[in-house]
Structures are given as C-alpha cells and as structure tokens.
Amino acid sequence: xxxxxxxxxxxxxxxxxxxxxxxxxxxxxxxxxxxxxxxxxxxxxxxxxxxxxxxxxxxxxxxxxxxxxxxxxxxxxxxxxxxxxxxxxxxxxxxxxxxxxxxxxxxxxxxxxxxxxxxxxxxxxxxxxxxxxxxxxxxxxxxxxxxxxxxxxxxxxxxxxxxxxxxxxxxxxxxxxxxxxxxxxxxxxxxxxxxxxxxxxxxxxxxxxxxxxxxxxxxxxxxxxxxxxxxxxxxxxxxxxxxxxxxxxxxxxxxxxxxxxxxxxxxxxxxxxxxxxxxxxxxxxxxxxxxxxxxxxxxxxxxxxxxxxxxxxxxxxxxxxxxxxxxxxxxxxxxxxxxxxxxxxxxxxxxxxxxxxxxxxxxxxxxxxxxxxxxxxxxxxxxxxxxxxxxxxxxxxxxxxxxxxxxxxxxxxxxxxxxxxxxxxxxxxxxxxxxxxxxxxxxxxxxxxxxxxxxxxxxxxxxxxxxxxxxxxxxxxxxxxxxxxxxxxxxxxxxxxxxxxxxxxxxxxxxxxxxxxxxxxxxxxxxxxxxxxxxxxxxxxxxxxxxxxxxxxxxxxxxxxxxxxxxxxxxxxxxxxxxxxxxxxxxxxxxxxxxxxxxxxxxxxxxxxxxxxxxxxxxxxxxxxxxxx
Length: 629
Fold this sequence. Notes:
Layout: H1 6-23, H2 26-31, E1 38-42, H3 43-53, E2 58-61, H4 68-79, E3 84-87, H5 91-105, E4 110-113, H6 117-132, E5 136-142, H7 162-170, E6 172-175, H8 182-193, E7 201-207, E8 214-219, H9 238-247, E9 251-255, H10 263-273, E10 276-279, H11 304-312, E11 315-319, E12 339-344, H12 347-350, E13 356-360, H13 363-376, H14 384-406, E14 410-413, E15 418-421, H15 423-436, E16 440-443, H16 447-455, E17 464-466, H17 475-479, H18 482-485, E18 492-497, H19 498-503, H20 507-514, E19 518-524, H21 529-539, H22 553-558, E20 563-567, H23 572-583, E21 588-594, H24 617-627
Parallel strand pairs: 2-3, 2-4, 4-5, 5-7, 6-7, 9-10, 9-11, 11-12, 12-13, 16-17, 16-18, 18-19, 19-21, 20-21
Antiparallel strand pairs: 1-8, 14-15
C-alpha cells in the first residue's frame, strides 16, 4: 500500500461511487467537468470502473480470501446502487448463471471467485460458455507476485503463473501482476467477451497483493469502452456458389449458431434456392418449425427428416456452423454431397470440408448479397420441387412417428413397479405448457436434452436454450438464476434429469435467496439414461450408469424454505394440473416426474444418425475416409 492510508482510500471511493450514481453513471461523471479524469485508486476499483464502462454491472460467485479487496470495492459500489453482486454456493453454477444471462438477454456479467478450488470450479463451468460461444468475464484471485513462499490454495508447484497457463488452455487470459496494465487487460477482455462472432470467456487473474495496490493519478479515460467491429460480407465466391446451387439436385442448408442474427435472410435464402434446412438445437426457432422447408435437427440424435435430408443431399450449404461431431455424424452426415458452399467468419471453419466454395465473411451480410444475386438469376434447379416433396413426405412421417409416442404416454417400468410417463409424453406436456405461459425453456444434458430438441417446435428464437456445446450437467437448473439477474425478469423452466439436478442443486437455495422465478422439472428414471442406452446399443448391456438409491425430491425441495414442490403424477392429465399450479407460484418450484426407462421403442425419440464413439468408431471412421468430404 502507498503512503495514503486505506481509510482515506475508502472514503474517497465512497464519495466517487455516490457522485457517479447521482449523475447517472460513469460516462456522465466523466463528462460533468467536475469529476476528475485522473484519480488515486486501487487496482480493484479500476477493474470495477473499467467493467462498468463496458456495461458489466452484475457479479456472481463466491468470495474468499483471494478476493477480499475487490469484494470490498463491490460492496461500496453496490451500496451506491451502481452494481449488484449475487452470492451463490457454487462457482460452477455461477458460471452457468452468467452464461445463461448473456445468452438469453445479452446482458453481461462477471463471475468472481477466490484463489484455488473456486477458480478451478468456475474454470470448469466456463467450458459451456467456451463451447457455445458466449462471452463471460471471470475474475479469479491468484497467488501473490513477490513469491514469498507458497500461497494457500495455489497449485503446489514451484513455477509462476500456473493458473494463468490453465486458463489460457481454455480461452484468453491475463494476469494483473502489474496494476498499470489494467487498461490493456480490459481491452483484451472486451475483444473476447464482446467478439461479434467468436465470443467466449475471458479470465482476469488478480494476484492478492496487487488487488489493493494504489494507482496514483490513474487516467480513467484509458479504460476501454468501445466494442470490436463486425466484418463485412464475403468478398468473392458468389458466382461460383450460385452456379453450384443451380446445378444441384438436392440442397441441404446446415444452420449453425453463427446464424443468430440472420433469420430473415436465412429464410429467404432457403426459399430462393429450393433447399431444405437442418437446424442446430442451439438456435431452435430461427426458422419456424412449421415452415415446410424446415427439416428440424439432424446428426447423431437428429430427426428422421433432418437426417434424411443430410443423407440424400448432393449440395451442402453450411452457414455459421462449426461441425460438432454429433451435428454432422462425425463428418459422415453427408455421404452423397459433391460440393460444399461454406459461409463463415472463421478461416478454420470455412475451410473445414473438402470440395468447398468458401464465403469468408459476415453470415448475415453474405446471405443478403447471395439473395440479391439469386433474385437476378434463376437459382432453383428443375428438380427442387421433387426434392422438397421428398423431404416434406419424410417430415410427415416424422410427425406420425412423434404422435405415435404421444398417443402411448405411459409404459410399465420395472424400477418404479408401475406404469409411468415416457419422456416423449412428459417433455411434450411441459414444452407445451412453457410455450403457453411464454416461459424460457432451459434443457440440461443427457436423455432429456436429446429427446427435448427432437420434440420442441419453436416458432421463433428465444423460446428454448439447449447447452449442446459442452452438454454440461446441471447447466439448466443453474440457468434459472438468470431470471432474477436480468433487467427484465422472466419465467424460466429447467428441464433436467435426476443425475443433472443432483450435480447442481444449489439453485434451490440461491434461487430463493435472490428471488428467481421458475420451475425445475426433474424427469427421474434413476439413471444416466443417455449413456445406459448408448451402452446397450453398443454392447447389449448397461454398466455403472444407474443406482439403487431412491431420493425423495419433494422432501428435498420442501426442506428449503421458499421452494414449492409438486409431484408430477403418472399421467399427462395429472402433470398438466400440477404445471398450472406451479405457474401460479411466485417464486421457485420443483416438480418430480417419474419417467420410463427400458427397451420399448415408444419410450424415446430414437436415433437416426452415426457417431464416432465406442465400438462404432472403426465403421464411422472408415465411412468418413470413403466419403472424403
């Protein structure tokens, strides 16, 4: 600490916070002519002001001995009404909550932890944000810079910057061992969390001895506030792409997460080209489900019609997709494709496939340019009407396939010793209710997720959020914290299995503490059904994916004062009644629904694709090399 005593620093900090709040924010304060640009402040306060300038005013996490100084800064600024801190009981759930807030509303938040285990928990949780391309700030306590000896909870190894190395493997990171580099750190962070195409987590490591270091006459105007710009449309490749479209017989458009802001252009594109679309679960609703050219999801857990379109197409138009193994059947999903038009902003993604016509540029602008050119030239091939007819027939078969399962909503289950709801029937009932009350649906990983994205029939973006990037168990229930963190609160529904819920049950406490509004629906089949099913498909028997321990989820939920708990029943009618009761509760509720697991094909949505996993790998890899795409 400098010659100024800490009491004086705190006093000046409180005055600054009060003035900034009184004039309506930091930018107003800097323009007031009264508030000095150059001030004495600690590094922690500079970080809070810098993040405030970037629109980050919400913090969530677990404070500890590695974050006491920045915690004190947040206390002062929250007292002035400038920031809000949400203390929770698990750093992984904090990570998921911040990610959900950014994904659903666009609002930014920072996850704050201590040193050591807390930072590692949050780092683990950030895999979801990294995988799904969602920008989240992370503030981790770190070991001191003077190396006076091992710090409590640091990695026990005599090397420098070990946590920094860990974080740099996951994404971009910066260690503030030199306080006056804070502006550079915040700029690099902004370029990461606000990247217009490849956003992700940014890890700011805060050594315990530099957090309270005094920065004399620091110039606040150095703190960055402008967002990184977007790219323009692809510069070339349009003529070649249109020629390929005109000569193709059967066109499939693979719609990835990079199409988020191009819904209008995308729909016009598939209509101009006479193509069919296969949609990533991540952006369910970007083309309305009932659009006749929407073949819904495809891949290893795709729909009957989505996978048919992939299997039969001779031209693939990949738009804003990064080709996760399950989405393109480990690169075997398009066995008859002769050419690929790939529209993407990332050079690695745009050149992923062979036989490619790359259009490197902004997806929305590139599609608009393609549409303009397509209107001038006859784009649809003569066979497009036959192709659309074939695909529509498959979609009708898919509708019949689904309805057959809804018509048989219960099956005998050996574990429960009675007839219980199937997952298709139970999920469909909850999905319909969520849409009726205009709730936001969050899907946890596992069987619930796979069945869920085959069942939802979204008419627009924003109804369903499925964390398919990392498939992180416990993500959906943690996401319910976003309902109260958002500037405009909303009602959320977490679709979760018994396994996923027990990995992050802290939401029961944290949700009540902060006023979350939503419903947790626990679909309980007493096992990790997705893996059990995979094991039986590959080896004929499941292993170590179930247990014999019965859990009273209603008693568990009711033990937390403020949570309302309901039994979902054994029929669609019982579940519908309970859902209506839950929607009338002003707070957090939980519904326990026993569901079927077994060999009856009516108990699930089926599998129509391939996947490079387990003892299937040799066959899938052999096919991939044969296709050569």
